[in-house]
Design a protein that fits this description.
Rossmann fold; five-stranded parallel sheet
Length: 292
């Protein structure tokens, strides 16, 4: 069996030392330049991990992350991005597909190798847990960016084999929670992040939407079905001293199988269980129509 490959793209790392320590941890290091193309990969020769060097332009690293993390076959290849100056700022005018780990470019070769091994092991754990697809997306608090999130979600949801109606309802629920994160969590501050994590397993689709706000008392959200008439809901919320609203959460609860917040109230998780057909075929890539 071939030794797992760690592909280092770009310059800016102590190549020989990093390769040495990766070898000590069971990873064969290879180099590739910035023109390295995803199309060159063969399914039987997928690397165990990608390390993006600090010499790469942000546009190049962003494109590599997008190509790998949105690909239904190569998605689970972990990516480490080496940079100076810490994690990139909030992308106020675009969405950013995140790598698995940001690592300071000043890290020693030993630290780079150890972090790489840890990321590879984590990827194996996720695969063993039945995760078929996972990607993390960050954007600023701008409603226009939700349209991009919606487009990105379409091919991800297609992997679930949900029916057309369920696909649209799940997509609506995720975008509605993104709207809440922008409006009520981040208070329209463009410099605050909204973080989306989309996961497909053998039996469910999950979306986590988190904001940079302080959170809220989740008991303030009227649960779906507690007030069947919107006017009654408005009266109940006024009587309790709560803001008029909550309809997005109410509708989203009806569109997914589970909706719950973290303890602080600045992250919501949506869960939609998948049909048996998906579970039986989760090990195979779905067949596309000839015209697509």
């Amino acid at each position: 069996m071939a030794e797992p490959r760690a592909v280092i793209v770009g310059e800016g790392v102590g190549w020989e030392e990093v390769a040495h320590w990766l070898g000590q941890l069971g990873l064969r290091a290879e180099r590739a330049d910035a023109d390295w193309a995803l199309s060159e990969w063969k399914p039987e020769d997928i690397p165990a991990v990608l390390i993006l060097g600090p010499s790469l332009r942000l546009e190049s690293t962003a494109e590599i992350c997008r190509q790998v993390k949105l690909h239904d076959t190569f998605n689970r290849v972990p990516i480490i991005e080496l940079l100076g100056g810490g994690v990139p700022g909030v992308p106020e005018d675009s969405i950013r597909i995140e790598p698995d780990l940001y690592l300071d470019s000043g890290a020693s070769p030993v630290e780079i190798a150890a972090s790489t091994r840890a990321v590879v092991e984590r990827a194996h754990e996720l695969e063993a847990a039945g995760i078929v697809f996972r990607c993390q997306v960050v954007c600023g608090s701008d409603l226009t960016l939700l349209g991009e999130i919606g487009k990105l979600l379409e091919p991800i949801l297609w992997l679930t084999r949900l029916g057309e109606g369920d696909l649209e309802r799940v997509r609506y629920a995720a975008l509605e929670m993104g709207l809440n994160a922008i409006e009520w969590g981040n208070r329209w501050e463009r410099g605050r992040r909204v973080r989306f994590t989309f996961t497909v397993t053998k039996d469910r689709f999950m979306a986590k939407i988190a904001d940079d706000g302080p959170g809220f008392d989740t008991g303030e959200v009227v649960r779906a079905g507690e007030e069947s008439d919107p006017q009654e809901q408005i009266a109940a919320r006024r009587a309790a001293g709560l803001r008029i609203g909550g309809y997005g959460v109410r509708v989203a609860r009806e569109f997914v199988d589970e909706l719950h917040y973290n303890e602080v109230g600045n992250e919501v998780t949506l869960v939609k269980y998948l049909p048996q057909e998906h579970q039986e075929n989760s090990g195979r890539a779905p067949e596309r129509d000839a015209e697509t």
